Amino acid sequence: MNTLTKRNNMSSSPDQSKRKTWILIVIGIIVVAFVGVSVLPFINSGGNEPQQANNPTSSPEVQQQQEDLDAQARGYEAVLEKEPENESALQGLIEVRIQQGDIEGALIPLEKLADLNPEQEAYRILLAQAKQQTGDLEGASDAYRFILDEKPGDTQALQGLVDLLLQQNRPEAAISELRNTLETAENKETEIDTTGVKLLLAQVYGRTEKFDGAIELYREVANNNPADFRPVLGQALVQQRKGNEEAAKPLYEKAFNLAPAQFKDQIKQMTPLLTDENTAPESENTEE
């Protein structure tokens, strides 16, 4: 057993498990969950800039909280000076930096943690997102490609890279990346979620106003996956963006009915074409 393995075993305490869970929750917030919203990105297609509330007249409670976070950060940094690979301290420092809104300050410990856990893709995804947010677009691209080199077609890494290319006004490069991934799936014995990749490609078509291509691809996915709400919702979004509400409304209704319960409210909030009347359960619309 090597030193790193021993260190990982020694640090698998309940506190570390809780901290790792918290970090993964943060990742879930920062990284768009592909399964749930993979047909939505062309709404708010511009980059989301971080919003920080800088209040020069902070209350004593807020000031005390900042001082506590500073003290925690110094404590973790002291541990890392002696044990640079202490994962508990690395995770704690990342947590503190995120709470402080200091994304740049989280980069070094996050990169270290990602290197120590190459099998844990979530850390590398968060690293790529953090680099992108701080303006290091080349570093973000490298982080996404690090994952894709090991797992071609990884949906979160692929979506992150595509969003990055679109941010750089390189839609054709994004389209080429996705088409190449589909070719890889056809030509190699590599397990790739081709449905997810096609949905992502349809997104790009929608975001770049290639509406006919988007609708055609969404229809193809819907025909092959009749129980999946995402391609139906994608068609509705494109039709509404084209101004064709007559075509969009029944698609929204169908997507709403197909969607799992946790996504129904989100779908309703996306469009005024869905009302309480046309989304009520059938039992509520049937008089006995």
Automatic annotation (TrEMBL):
It comes from the Bacteria. SMART domains: TPR (SM00028). TPR repeats lie at residues 195-228. Residues 48-69 are annotated as: Disordered. The chain crosses the membrane at residues 21-43. Pfam families: TPR_15. InterPro entries: CellSynth/LPSAsmb/PSIAsmb, TPR-like_helical_dom_sf, TPR_rpt. Residues 48-66 have a biased composition (Polar residues). Keywords: Membrane, Repeat, TPR repeat, Transmembrane, Transmembrane helix. This is Uncharacterized protein. The lineage of its organism: Bacteria, Bacillati, Cyanobacteriota, Cyanophyceae, Nodosilineales.
